[in-house]
Specification:
The protein is α/β, with parallel strands linked by helices and 412 residues long. It has 3 domains: 100 residues, Tetrapyrrole methylase, N-terminal domain (Cobalt-precorrin-4 Transmethylase, domain 1, 3-Layer(aba) Sandwich); 102 residues, Tetrapyrrole methylase, C-terminal domain (Methyltransferase, Cobalt-precorrin-4 Transmethylase, Domain 2); 182 residues, Rossmann fold (3-Layer(aba) Sandwich). 28% of the residues lie in helices and 26% in strands. The chain has a 7-stranded mixed β-sheet with strand order 13-12-11-14-15-19-16, with helices on both faces. Strand 12, helix 10 and strand 13 form a beta-alpha-beta unit. The radius of gyration is 24 Å and the shape is globular. Pathway: Cofactor biosynthesis; adenosylcobalamin biosynthesis. Keywords: Cobalamin biosynthesis, Methyltransferase, S-adenosyl-L-methionine, Transferase. InterPro entries: 4pyrrol_Mease, 4pyrrol_Methylase_sf, 4pyrrole_Mease_sub1, 4pyrrole_Mease_sub2, CbiE, Cbl_synth_CobL, Cbl_synth_MTase_CbiT, Cobalamin_biosynth_MTase. This is Tetrapyrrole methylase domain-containing protein.
C-alpha cells in the first residue's frame, strides 16, 4: 500500500470558517489530525486520532512518518506553513512527493492588509526566542517597513523601549492582535505611550518609518566583495578569524543560496558577515555568549548592512535549540563544550551538510578530529601556516603566524 501524501493545512484565527472546501474535505477524510493545541481545538467534534505538535519536533516527525504510512494524516499549522512555520521542518524530513501544502493567509500579510499598506518592500524580523538586538540590522538600514514576530519577553512595550533607548523614535508602531478572529484589534501607538499597555500574546508589530532615510546612511562601497580586512570589522584584541583563513573556511563550507548557516562562537562575526555578503538569501545565525563580542557583531552588521545575519545571544549547544536545522556550520569557538556542540550539530545537520572547525591548539584539533573522523562523517584536515613580509632594515623578511588546523567534515 502506497502512503498518501501528508496534507499540511494552514489555518487562520477564525478556524474552520476560514478554510476552503478543499481543506475541509481533507480534514473530514483524515483519520489522524495533527496540530498545536490551539489548532486542534478548532475541531472539537472531529473523531479520530489526534497528534499534538509541541516543542519536541523529533517525536512529532516520528509520529507523522508512522501515521502517514498507516492512514490519511492532516497537519494543521498557522497561516502559511512555509512562512516561519512548521512547513520548513516537514520539507526537510519528508520527500517532496509525500507533502501537499494548502497555505492560509499569513499573519504578516493580514497585518499589512489591515494597515492598507503594501509589504513587498518590508523587512521581516522574528524576535520569537531571540534577543531584541536582532532588530538592529533592519533599523541600521533605516528600513521603511518592518514586521516583527513577538513573544512573551519581546512584546510591543519592550520593542518600544528598545527603539527609544537606541534613538529610533522616527518609527510609528502598530500592534495587530488576534488577526482574523472575532477579537481582532489593530491599534496605532506613540512609542512613549506603550509602557503600561497589555496585548493578546497573538500579536504582530508593524513599524513604519516617518520621513526619508538620512543621507548619512553607512556606505561601504570601498570594501571588497570578498575578503574583508580585519581593520574594517570591530573586534577585540585581535580576536578575529584572519582574512586568509576566513576565505579557506568559506570555501570548505561550500554554501549555496537559500541555505541555513550557523556560526557558533561567532566572536566578531567575521565568518558570518563574509557569508552574508555572498548571498542575501542565506539564513545566517551568529551564536555568541559574550556580551562584548555580541556588541561587536551588532556594530559590524550595521556597518555592512547585512540584516539577514541574525544574532543569537546564548551558549551552544542550548542556544541552538530554536534555530532551523542547518545546511552548514562553522565552529569558531566552543567554550570547552566541543563534544556537546558536535553532538548537537550531528543531530541537527541535514544529510550532506558541512561542518568546518578552526583549531589553534593541538588539543582542540585532536579532540575535534576524534569527534568528526568516524563513520557518520567524511572528514579531512588541513594545516595552514601563513607568513607575511616584515621590514628588516632596508630589506624584508617573512614572519610566520602560528599554524591553524582546519577540520572539514560532511555528514553522511
Amino acid at each position: 500500500m502506497t502512503a498518501e501524501p501528508l496534507v499540511v493545512v494552514g489555518i487562520g484565527h477564525d478556524g474552520a470558517a476560514g478554510l476552503s472546501q478543499e481543506a475541509l474535505t481533507h480534514i473530514r477524510q483524515a483519520e489522524i489530525l495533527a496540530g498545536g493545541v490551539r489548532h486542534l481545538a478548532f475541531f472539537p467534534q472531529w473523531e479520530g486520532e489526534k497528534v499534538v505538535i509541541d516543542a519536541d519536533l523529533k517525536r512529532v516527525i516520528r509520529q507523522l512518518e508512522a501515521s502517514r504510512q498507516q492512514a490519511k494524516t492532516v497537519v494543521l499549522a498557522s497561516g502559511d506553513p512555509l512562512f516561519y512555520g512548521i512547513g520548513r521542518t516537514l520539507a526537510a524530513h519528508f520527500p517532496p512527493e509525500s507533502l501537499y501544502f494548502l497555505p492560509h493567509v499569513s499573519s504578516v500579510q493580514l497585518a499589512f492588509a489591515r494597515l492598507k499598506t503594501s509589504w513587498h518592500d518590508a523587512q521581516i524580523v522574528s524576535l520569537h526566542g531571540r534577543p531584541l538586538e536582532s532588530l538592529r540590522p533592519a533599523l541600521g538600514q533605516y528600513a521603511a517597513k518592518i514586521a516583527l514576530f513577538t513573544d512573551a519577553a519581546n512584546h510591543p512595550a519592550a520593542i518600544a523601549r528598545f527603539l527609544l533607548a537606541n534613538g529610533y523614535d522616527n518609527y510609528d508602531l502598530w500592534v495587530c492582535e488576534e488577526l482574523g478572529g472575532t477579537a481582532e484589534r489593530v491599534t496605532h501607538w506613540k512609542l512613549r505611550d506603550l509602557d503600561d499597555a497589555a496585548f493578546s500574546p497573538l500579536n504582530i508589530v508593524i513599524l513604519i518609518r516617518r520621513g526619508d532615510a538620512p543621507t548619512s546612511t553607512v556606505h561601504n562601497s570601498h570594501l571588497p566583495l570578498l575578503g574583508l580586512p580585519e581593520q574594517s570589522l570591530a573586534h577585540r584584541d585581535g580576536m578575529i578569524t584572519k582574512r586568509e583563513i576566513r576565505l579557506l573556511a568559506l570555501g570548505y563550507l561550500a554554501l549555496h543560496p537559500g541555505e541555513v548557516f550557523w556560526d557558533i562562537g561567532a566572536g566578531s562575526g567575521s565568518v558570518a558577515l563574509e557569508a552574508a555578503r555572498l548571498s542575501s538569501s542565506l539564513q545566517i545565525f551568529a551564536i555568541e555568549k559574550d556580551e562584548n563580542a555580541l556588541g561587536h557583531i551588532v556594530e559590524n552588521v550595521q556597518t555592512l548592512a547585512t540584516p539577514h545575519v541574525q544574532l543569537i545571544h546564548g551558549e551552544a549547544p542550548g542556544a541552538l535549540a530554536p534555530l532551523p536545522d542547518p545546511d552548514a556550520v562553522f565552529i569558531g569557538g566552543s567554550g570547552g563544550r566541543l563534544p556537546d556542540i558536535v553532538s548537537a550539530v550531528a543531530d541537527r545537520l541535514r544529510p550532506g551538510g558541512r561542518v568546518v572547525m578552526n583549531c589553534i591548539t593541538l588539543e582542540n584539533f585532536t579532540l575535534g578530529w576524534s569527534l568528526l573522523n568516524n563513520g557518520s562523517w567524511q572528514a579531512e584536515a588541513t594545516s595552514v601556516q601563513l607568513s607575511h613580509t616584515k621590514p628588516l632594515g632596508q630589506m624584508h623578511r617573512f614572519t610566520s603566524d602560528s599554524p591553524i588546523f582546519i577540520i572539514q567534515a560532511t555528514k553522511l
